[in-house]
Design goal:
heterodimer, A: 204 residues, alpha/beta, Rossmann fold, 8-stranded mixed beta sheet, 4 helices, 19% helix, B: 206 residues, 19% strand
């Protein structure tokens, strides 16, 4: 069983994430599939799933049954970006923050999910001192979801994890791929490493 | 006539093409995979949003060429590897300086090269200024609309490669606007899309 990473952008594989996942790919733990070559069989053999901000959410609808089946079997999915075409019952569409100011990007850890546990969330708050890259809104958490990280005094749920009643787990990050945020390369590596472990079922 | 936009389906495409702010500038949306069933000649303009995966358009290169050969207009925006599916494109990517604006008084260097062009009744240099992703070597006879700090074209009109018209830029407004992230990109679309409707699709001037 592998982690299926769906590559939605045209550039060479891993143009955006290569160093972080090169080992997982080389060892066969992670399989990268160009989105247009995706088949339902890819979901049958996957233990984990990564979709990026560039996912063709309209085209991905054709895999709604396959995604539901993957989760029903206990699969774990990390979803990045703004949900505008919900693929599962219970998911809603992205809500941007209206005209956010700097304090609205302050980040707070609300739940120590194993991918983020022990990592100072403030280290992900800015890139070169500029806030707003991590997230600027939220995908509405389904009933029963646990909020991991929140934005601003309004505690906007930018990251949450949802254990579906039917099985499987979805971790939603409503922004650019979270292992690309912040300025600390060691934290990026740690987030990527832990994500692979969590998707593999080895980190719980 | 009408404006056809290609709809690759990422969230930033959905936000740009479907949300009320700009949806009325696009009369019809077509998925790249459905292009072969579309008669492009029915449309005055084919709009290709930035970050459209080029391998999803490559199978339709001949269809685009035929459309241009009968006088059509293609508007194509950046980070799309246009050379994969359009003729006459020579592009040199450049490393993007995401942080130029952190230096007080910094200037990215974008300049309007054809100030008398009708587009610049609606857009100023600050509306073209966010990031640079690369420049073009347009064919002789093209009209350069904007250049980078080294004087290289980043936005031009090519009416020489084909009997039609290609309006080409390396700017990527849809990605940033659709991410709710870059005010200049929204200003760009606020100016460019009404211009496209008025000047390229022949809508009455308001």
């Amino acid at each position: 069983m592998t982690i299926l990473m769906i590559q939605s952008h045209y550039q060479e594989p891993f143009a955006m994430t290569a160093p972080l996942f090169a080992d997982a790919v080389a060892s066969g733990v992670m399989k990268v599939v160009r989105e247009m070559e995706l088949t339902e069989e890819h979901f049958d053999t996957a233990r984990g799933l990564i979709t990026t901000t560039h996912l063709d959410q309209i085209g991905f609808q054709r895999f709604s049954s396959a995604v539901a089946g993957f989760l029903d079997r206990g699969g774990r999915w990390i979803h990045h970006g703004h949900i505008l075409r919900p693929i599962l019952p219970g998911l809603g569409t992205y809500i941007p923050m209206p005209q956010p100011k700097r304090p609205d990007f302050d980040q707070t850890r609300l739940h120590d999910h194993p991918i983020f546990a022990g990592i100072d969330q403030k280290k992900l708050e800015t890139n070169r001192g500029v806030a707003g890259f991590y997230g600027r809104g939220h995908n509405p958490p389904p009933e029963g979801a646990v909020v991991i990280n929140a934005l601003g005094s309004a505690k906007i749920p930018v990251d949450w994890v949802w254990a579906r009643p039917e099985g499987g787990e979805l971790l939603s990050h409503a922004g650019n791929d979270f292992w690309g945020c912040g300025d600390d390369p060691e934290i990026k590596k740690l987030l990527a490493h832990r994500s692979v472990a969590w998707l593999s079922g080895e980190l719980n | 006539m009408s404006i056809l936009a290609i709809h690759p389906g990422a969230y930033y495409h959905i936000e740009t093409l479907e949300a009320p702010r700009y949806a009325h500038y696009f009369d019809r949306l077509v998925r790249p995979e459905d292009l072969s069933g579309e008669d492009l000649a029915e449309h005055a303009v084919v709009f290709i949003p930035c970050r459209t995966p080029a391998d999803r358009l490559a199978p339709h290169a001949d269809q685009f060429r035929a459309y241009l050969d009968q006088g059509g207009t293609i508007v194509a925006t950046g980070e799309t590897a246009l050379e994969v599916f359009l003729h006459g494109i020579t592009f040199t990517p450049q490393p993007t300086n995401w942080w130029w604006w952190l230096t007080p008084g910094a200037d990215l260097g974008v300049r309007i090269a054809s100030p008398d062009h009708s587009l610049f009744g609606r857009l100023g240099e600050r509306d073209l200024t966010w990031h640079l992703h690369g420049w073009f070597d347009p064919p002789d006879g093209s009209q350069v609309l904007a250049i980078n700090g080294e004087g290289k074209p980043i936005f031009y009109v090519d009416e020489v490669t084909t009997p039609g018209r290609m309006i080409i830029t390396s700017l990527d407004p849809c990605f940033h606007h659709g991410s709710h992230f870059m005010p200049a990109t929204t200003r760009f679309l606020d100016g460019f899309l009404p211009w496209m409707r008025e000047e390229l699709d022949g809508a009455p001037r308001k």
